[in-house]
Amino acid sequence: MKIKMILSDMDGTLVNYPNKPFNSTWDVFPKILSAQKKKEWFELHDFYLGKKDFYQDWFDKQVSLLRGLSVERAYSSFFPIPYSKGVESFFNSLNGKYIKGIVSSGIGFVAEKIKEDLKFNFQSSSNLEIESEKFTGKGKINFDISEKGRAIISISQKYKINLEEICYIGDAFNDIPAFELVGLAVAFNPKENELEKKADYVIYDFNELKKILNIK
Questions:
Q1: Could you tell me which residues come within 8 angstroms of residue 142 by beta carbon, excluding any fewer than 6 positions away?
Q2: CATH number of the domain at 1-216, please?
Q3: Does 146 have pLDDT greater than 70?
Q4: Digit-coded pLDDT (tens) for 98-140
Q5: Distance (Å, whole) CA 148 – CA 141
């Protein structure tokens, strides 16, 4: 198997924020919202989680709670990025041998910083609108949380790389559609047993990928 592209999920995979429930970029916001907005945030989470075909509604309503929030205040909670074990070492060792991309429904400004830090070729994530150094309460998703498979196909076509030549790394249920398409599926610190079953390999340190990919 010749792998030419390495794609990775972000939340819970490339990054491991200490906030619950998913250690994700989205989980950072509640701690910097007012008590009332924090309550509404988790009510939306409990209502929409697991409901297919409603991700856009969930996204729009949750992002609306950010309206007026200072970007500077938010950035102080998001940065520096808490990279998962081995992430920086592994990606800095590749020396341009692979096309590297982030495929995530997480926060775009974090994905963009990772792209810059680790010299990824591209990132696809959720963008939040900013004006006058504040969030406007609007944003845009690049794909539904359940449609990573579609996103992977689109990326493979754009870069003219066969699906069998792609390694994808993820940690949660919404990564399963991607696992079912690519040539090499790697579960990092998996959150569900079903993901482990679908994975070719399970790792807990990104440096373990060096052996899997035969990187010296």
A1: 124, 125, 126, 127, 151
A2: 3.40.50.1000
A3: yes
A4: 999 999 999 999 999 999 999 999 999 999 999 999 999 999 9
A5: 12
CA 197, 200, 203, 206 dihedral sign is negative
In angstroms, the CA 5 to CA 82 distance is: 24
Structure tokens at 98: 């692979």
Residue owning tokens 């924020």:
17
Distance CA 89, CA 195 (A): 25
Please state whether the predicted TM-score (pTM) of the whole model is above 0.85: yes
Contact, 158 vs 176, CB < 8 A? no
Hey, where are the domains in the chain? 1-216
Identify the three-state secondary structure at position 3. Answer: coil
Listed in sequence order, the residues at least 6 apart from 212 whose beta carbon sits closer than 8 Å to its beta carbon are 184, 186, 201, 203
